[in-house]
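pls read this stuff:
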Amino acid sequence: METSPILLPTALRQLPPLPQVLVRALELIQDPRSRRSELAHVLSLDQGMTGLFLRMVNSAYYGLPRRIASLDEAIGYLGYETVQEVIFAASASKILSRAVPAYRLERTALWRHSVAVAAGSERVAQRRLITPRSEVYVAGLLHDVGKLAIDLMVKHQTEWAGKSERDPENVAWTEVERQITGHDHAEVGAVIVRSWNLPDRVVEAVAYHHSPAKAQTDLRFTSAVHVANAAALMAGIGIGVDGLRYTLDEIAIKQLDWTESDMTSLIADMQNAVSQAEEIIGLGV
């Protein structure tokens, strides 16, 4: 199967942009001069986002002594880092919850995998003092967004990988992608997140989440996403046509001083995070 060079930009144009409420909210979060009331006003323009934050802060998880009815107050309890993560998770659910036939991922499967890797990346960052954690979370959440573009490029075909000249069972999945489309999902994903004006560390982590040793800006940051992705696949969260053909990078493991015990506890954390996200955002019910 051959693809024209024009297919990539065509596919990218078909992907929805980040919602304007999200873009403005992130600008305010990153502006030290902004006030909490300004952020609350922007988020209040999205009814779904307003309900999400109030539902979250009033959940049993936070166990507050009284019910919170003000979005401004909810943001104060949750904190900017958590607010940023939730905004991204909710917004990404609209993009990532669709089925991805080319990867044999049913509806919400990619979103669940992405939330797992986001939460796992943040846990790794927390344990190894990698900052800023909210950016690590975002990189984990968006690491596989390139699969949506590849799916469009191969016209949602489920058997496209079988047209590879090499046995896809014996080569890295990214090699199969490059041979058939001229691109792999990691590099395509990096193009997408760069177009969304996300930080360079996030772009790099998306680009090299399969090969973290190539990272030049922040190797440990990218390694956190790499390890979390491996953990999600080991847990069976969002396994598609690429299956378990994912090799842990020894340099990443050494950089993080990561052990089997660390991986076991990380998997449990990620499974809990996915369940919590499904409950809060309302997918899978």
In short: Residues 1-6 have pLDDT under 50 and may be disordered. Residues 97-281 form a domain with the Hypothetical protein af1432 fold (CATH 1.10.3210.10). The chain has 15 helices and no strands. Residues 165 and 179 are 8 Å apart (CA to CA).
